[in-house]
Specification:
Strand 2 and strand 3 form a beta hairpin. It is built from 2 helices and 4 strands; from the N terminus they run βαββαβ. The chain is of the alpha+beta class. The protein is elongated.
Amino acid sequence: MDRGFVAIAELEVRLPGSASLKDRRSALARLRSGLAERFGASVCEVGDRDTPQRGALLVACAQQTQAGCDDHLQRLERWLDERDVTVGIVQARMVTPEDLE
């Protein structure tokens, strides 16, 4: 019996117009907020936090089915493409509760 799926994606964010760490924090905060509000995602900043022009986010979304998870990731990727920053998905993976046992 499937108990659901969790999609985990690592995002690399490029912020070429960011001149300071304050600009960077603001841009990443907008992305985190949008991902949480629009997709119900859990989002945290990971990696180096001292470079104004780049950042990394880890995103997790839960769905009942694998197809739902796939669709969720595709919609998330399209939404990211519409943002005013360059965001690339470094890696994405799906896990089930059984994978964690």
